[in-house]
Amino acid sequence: MSFQKAYPKSMLQTFRERSETIGNCNECCRKTRLLACNHCNNAICCQESCSILFPHIADSLFVICNTCRTTIEEKIVTVIDYSKLILLKKKINKKRKLMI
Ligand SMILES: [Zn+2]
Ligand SMILES: [Zn+2]
Known about the structure:
Elements (H helix, E strand, L loop, with lengths): L8 H10 L2 E4 L6 E6 L6 E2 L6 E5 L5 E5 H34 L1
Antiparallel strand pairs: 1-2, 2-3, 4-5
Bound molecules: zinc ion (2 copies).
The site of one zinc ion has 8 residues, from loops.
């Protein structure tokens, strides 16, 4: 899973249209237009370093703040490691059977 780095202009425009609040971003502390993170509800701006935006149903946006992004990415890594572990166990089991 790779996160989009640069957002198309249409996406940033949707962000501005959807954003009803102007305040301080939870990530960069700048006063700008904000949207709530779909995960933790923290208000964040549309800067790439603060949030990840995904196109969502009915022309809306799915917004994830950078803090949640880090958490989610860590979870993904854990899941990958876990599946590798299962594969490794299977291989070890096969070797054992061969030895018997
Ligand atoms: Zn920000
Ligand atoms: Zn969040």
